[in-house]
Amino acid sequence: MGRVKTRKVKVLAREIMEKFPDRVSADFELNKMLVGEVLTGQISKKLRNQVAGYITRLVKRELEKAEEEAVAEAK
Predict the structure, then answer these.
(1) Sign, Cα dihedral of 65, 7, 21, 59
(2) Domains along the chain?
(3) Measured between alpha carbons, how far is 23 from 5 in angstroms, rounded to an integer?
(4) What is the predicted pLDDT for the residue at 40?
(5) Are the beta carbons of 51 and 13 closer than 8 angstroms?
(6) In this predicted structure, what is the pLDDT of residue 22?
(7) Are the C-beta atoms of 51 and 35 separated by less than 8 Å?
(8) Could you report the per-residue pLDDT of 14-69, keeping only the tens digit for each?
(9) Would you say residue 10 has pLDDT above 80?
(10) What is the rounded CA–CA span in Å between residue 70 and residue 17?
């Protein structure tokens, strides 16, 4: 089983995704820098990395869904 993310991680990640949809990517390092800029001085490194990882996971999941829909439409 995977690790369970806390509510705080999920809320912060979704807020960042809503406010900065053009800057969020499927790359963890870019997301880590974005979270560091947005939440300057508010959170620890561990929480920053958890939020960035969760954002990365959500973006990858959205990309997979988009690919599946494109394949379904092509048939």
Answers:
(1) negative
(2) 7-74 (1.10.60.20)
(3) 22
(4) 84
(5) yes
(6) 94
(7) yes
(8) 999 999 999 999 999 999 999 999 998 878 999 999 999 999 999 999 999 998 88
(9) yes
(10) 23
The pair of three-digit structure tokens given for residue 49, joined into one six-digit string: 């990395």
- According to the model, what pLDDT value does residue 1 have? 59
pLDDT at position 48 is: 94
Residue 2 DSSP code:
-
Q: What angle do CA 25, 26, 27 make, to 5 degrees?
A: 90
**In 1-75, which ranges are continuous DSSP H helix?**
7-19, 28-38, 45-74
In the block, which residue shows the tokens 């620890």? 44
Residue 12, both tokens:
């912060």
46 backbone dihedrals φ, ψ, rounded to 5°: -60, -45
